[in-house]
Amino acid sequence: MNEPIQNRIATLLKGSGRTLSAAESCTGGQISHLLTTVSGSSEYYLGSVTSYAVSVKEKVLGVPAATVRDFGVVSSEVAAAMAEGVRRLTGSTFAVATTGLAEGGDGRYPEGTVWIGVAGPAGTKTRIYHCDLGRKGNIRRFATVALRFLAAYIAAE
To answer: What are the chain's domains?
Structure first.
């Protein structure tokens, strides 16, 4: 069963009336790219916000400045707020978000660390993931792991 994860998500959402959005920081659009490689993804995929800058996380996604200040931009709390923010912004059923360090550490987390948030009718969940594949490899892996986390969340609904 080597089905690409974006195809699994398509199977879960096509024809269901449920929708999806993404808020990406360290993945820089890779999640959106993977989702849109599936023919017919416009039926369920509404779009994304690539919020590389903290100001975009705060102003567009509604991440509270206090959350960034108190927990750091690479945190469970920011990942959760990003997922909730893009879900609210787009009106999607589900949302996935990533915030992390594709390259370079920050004194708290090493390079290759990502916090992933998923949000939907059952609430918001986060998880941390770490890999050491270099910048491009980390970005690709982060996106795949985020989509796997999202698919498991949707399947559990």
So the answer is: 5-156 (3.90.950.20)
